[in-house]
Structure formats: C-alpha cells, structure tokens
Amino acid sequence: MLKRLRKWYAGKDIPVNPDEPDSIGGMTVLHETKKEFHWSAKIFRSLVSFYFHHWQWLWGTAIAVCIGVATIIWQR
Fold first, then answer.
1. For position 26, what pLDDT does the model report?
2. 20-34: average pLDDT
3. Which of 58, 61, 62, 33 is nearest to 48 (CA)?
4. pLDDT grade, residue 14 (50/70/90)?
5. Domain containing 71: what range?
C-alpha cells in the first residue's frame, strides 16, 4: 500500500519528444521528460507545499484559537 502511495505522489514521467531515437551512434540518449500527476495528487501536493511554506503562522493561529476557545469555556 505504501508503495502505491509513493508512486501516486511521485507521478509519471512522460517523454517530451516520443519520436526521439533511443541511441545515436551506439550511445544511449537521455530523453527529456516531464512529470504528470493525478488530479488528486496535484491537490495534495499543493496542500503540502502550502503547509511547508506557511507552517509558522498556521501553528500560531491554531494555538491562539485553541487558547481562545479554552478561555471562553473556562469563563462559563
């Protein structure tokens, strides 16, 4: 199951120019590729990226909201 999740998250390599030969003069060619992700993997990757860029204020806001809720409950 973990292997399938990693494969889903990593996406597929799609060759940019599929008509390019595999070898030129006996030397193998490294094909230029681009990554293609499943639509759900794109959404998940964007959420992970957002978290990694903004984790400081996300945690600060979550802690402040929890403290605010606890204060309101405590006052009753």
1. 67
2. 75
3. 58
4. confident
5. 2-75
DSSP per position, 17-73 = -TTS-SEETTEE----EEEE--HHHHHHHHHHHHHHHHHHHHHHHHHHHHHHHHHHH
Please choose, from the candidates 40, 34, 29, the residue with its C-alpha nearest in 3D space to the C-alpha of residue 12.
34
Total number of domains in the chain: 1
Compute the mean pLDDT over every residue in the chain, rounded to the nearest whole number: 89
Identify which has the larger pLDDT, 39 or 76. Answer: 39
Q: Are 52 and 22 in contact (CB under 8 A)?
A: no
Query: How many CB atoms are closer than 10 A to CB 37?
Result: 15
Q: Provide the pLDDT for residue 8.
A: 93
**Residue 33 tokens, joined:** 């590729």
